Amino acid sequence: MQYREIGQSGITASAITFGAWAIGGWMWGGADRKEALEAILASYELGVTSIDTAPAYGQGLSEEIVGDALKVLPRHKLQILTKYGLRWDMQKGQHFFSSKFNNGSPL
Predict the structure, then answer these.
(1) Which residues does the annotation mark as catalytic?
(2) Helices 33-45 & 61-70, crossing angle to 10 degrees?
(3) How far apart are CA 94 and CA 99, in angstroms?
(4) Of the candidates 19, 21, 17, which has an alpha carbon nearest to the alpha carbon of residue 62?
(5) Strand 3-5 vs strand 12-14: parallel, antiparallel, or unpaired?
(6) What phi-psi label fits residue 21: left (phi over 0), alpha (psi between -120 and 50 degrees) or beta?
(7) How many Å separate Cα 15 from the centre of its chain?
(8) What ranges make up the beta strands (E) of the chain?
(9) What's the pLDDT score for residue 49?
(10) Is the distance from CB of 51 to CB of 18 less than 8 angstroms?
(11) Which residue did the predictor score with more confidence, 98 or 77?
(12) Where are the domains of the chain?
């Protein structure tokens, strides 16, 4: 695995990131929770230290699964790359696209 420093922060991150969008369900079909957790753990064993997630990925499910992984992985060796500002639980701001909850009902 290759690693790169993030700016001049002294933080070194893996060049390959585990993308956790699909494990949240929503738009990509989701994954079995146990298998998703195993995938994160396997990626760490292969040297991946960066995990990309966001609250909007499965309306929080992705971040829950990433949280489960953090219970067994050394947190000080990981970089959690997340986004903020996308809200689905309130009518505020502009909605840029139509979506559905994981159960298929309109969001």
Answers:
(1) 57
(2) 50
(3) 13
(4) 21
(5) antiparallel
(6) alpha
(7) 16
(8) 3-5, 12-14, 17-19, 50-52, 79-81
(9) 98
(10) yes
(11) 77
(12) 3-81
